[in-house]
Amino acid sequence: MSGRSLTKLSELRRQLRTGELEAKLAERSGAPAALRQYSIDPSGTDALIKFGKHSGLQLSHIAQRDPGYLNWILESDFPSELKDVTREVLARRDGGEMSKAAEELAASFKGLGRKAGMTAAAAGELAEKLAKHATRKKK
User: Fold this and answer.
1) Helix (H) or strand (E) holding 25
2) Which domain holds residue 46?
3) Shared-domain flag, residues 107 and 73
4) At a CB cut-off of 8 Å and minimum separation 6, what does 104 contact?
């Protein structure tokens, strides 16, 4: 194959992988816009993926199982509106993980405080402040 043919083949593979080829075919056939490769929900905070190995799943669900897939979307040739929603889903996921980590840290700190001679109430109060501070930071 010539270099030009390989380039065209690579481009077609990319379009097939991202769902762009399906969208172009649907557009040419006069099919409705609902046949796009994704559908952003009315709130604009999640999207239904209609292509690839996670076809039929919401980004928020994919983020729990395969966050690398969302990073792949961000690094690939997808429309900016899908990338914006993907960033938001990842930020919510990261914020939730941060909150869990803060709770675990607070529980550990409470135990350490008691070992250091603090009263259980004082250690608990300090741990709660730490958890609240960490939770506020994520917002």
Assistant:
1) helix 20-28
2) 37-138
3) yes
4) none
